[in-house]
Amino acid sequence: MNARAIQMWSARGAIALVAIGGAVALSGPALAAPAGLKVLSTEMGSIDLLSCPSTNPIYDNLPVTFNWFIRPASVRPTDFEIVREDGSVATPVCALMYPPNEPDERQTINLIGNFDEGAADPAVKVRPVQLRIVGALRGQPIGATRSRPVTGLAPLTITDVADPPAIVDAWMLTPLLADLYATDPNRCTVGTAFVRVMWSNGINAYLSDPSSLPLEVGRSTTLAYRAIFRLPSGRRQSITPIALGDLLDHATDGVPNPSLDDNMHDLCLASVPKGARLVGVSITKPNLVMKPSKVGNRVQKFVVR
Ligand SMILES: [Ca+2]
Ligand SMILES: [Ca+2]
Ligand SMILES: [Ca+2]
Ligand SMILES: [Ca+2]
Fold first, then answer.
1. Fewer CB in a 10 Å sphere around the end CB: N or C, the chain?
2. Cα-flanking dihedrals φ and ψ of residue 129, to 5°?
3. Which ligand is nearest to the CA of 177?
4. pLDDT digits (tens, 9 = 90+) for 172-213
5. First and final CA of the chain: distance in angstroms?
6. Which one, of 295, 265, 270, lies nearest residue 282 by Cα?
7. What confidence tens digit (pLDDT) does each residue in 142-182 have?
């Protein structure tokens, strides 16, 4: 999938994203992974819910989130192999940097294809269990400018579609990406410091009725987040956001479309003490957000490493 095709995609339906991928064994590519590069999540988002640009079939999706920014022009479906529990291997039909498609959110590649059905008989369900990254992806640490090969990663365990979405990364948008963030059309419009919170999957407001249409999150979700800082004195301070950014970041025919929400929120903080360092993010209540497979979040304390 090239960048032009991604931009042309008028997506439909909900988009999902990831769980925490554990490396299981080192094999495959001979090149070692660059120091510091990590895959943060590989969690099935939906089964038989999405299509690819210019295709009609309905596929499964598997978001893959890195701690680096990935170069969109380097992404090909053939960069990925999904191993099913019967040993068969699927290649995605498309690999999109969408819905997380803004210049300040290039951590996630959304793999779409036939991942949970048997290679011989599509009527037989066979769970996807492992992801191998085998192509010539390129990327760089957030804020860096020179890209490097994203190679040498160990095979990753795929988390099940029935598992809850989880926070998998958190970092300060400013000052690191201040210039880029200033042009983000759905950025925080209040506050003085901004925290990017990455989830393992696309997230909407939690709805107990699975037949309900997706909605964007509301005030109860804002008030349940905490950004946790370590002060120069060593003390910790927990800050509740005054608002969220990166809401309703996609529209269909000019109408905001929550079913296309991506896998992140920006926490808008009124102020952060001088010299304080972000050490964690919490969500203090369950079932505030849900991924496309309609599974709600749990209470979680995410530690920044
Ligand atoms: Ca399927
Ligand atoms: Ca976004
Ligand atoms: Ca944004
Ligand atoms: Ca978002």
1. C
2. -125, -25
3. 3
4. 999 999 999 999 999 999 999 999 999 999 999 999 998 899
5. 32
6. 265
7. 999 999 999 999 999 999 999 999 999 999 999 999 999 99
> In the structure encoding, which two tokens stand for residue 157, read together?
């365990």
* C-alpha of residue 212 to centroid of ligand 3, in Å: 25
116 C-alpha to ligand 1 centroid (Å):
5
Encoded tokens for 286: 């369950």
Ligand nearest to the Cα of 114, by number = 1
Tokens linked to 45: 């988002």
Q: How far is the CA of 97 from the centre of ligand 3 (A)?
A: 14
Average pLDDT taken over every residue of the chain: 90
The Å distance, Cα 246 to ligand 3 centre, comes to: 4
CA distance 293 to 201: 10
pTM, entire model: 0.89
Closest ligand relative to 185 C-alpha = 3
> Structure tokens of 133?
């990254």
Counting every residue, how long is the chain?
305
Ion ligand 1 contact residues with beta carbon within 5 A: 48, 60, 116
E-assigned strand segments in 115-269: 128-133, 138-141, 148-149, 156-157, 167-172, 193-199, 204-205, 225-230, 236-239, 243-245, 251-252, 255-256, 264-269
Give the model confidence (pLDDT) of 240-299 as tens digits: 999 999 999 999 999 999 999 999 999 999 999 999 999 999 999 999 999 999 999 999
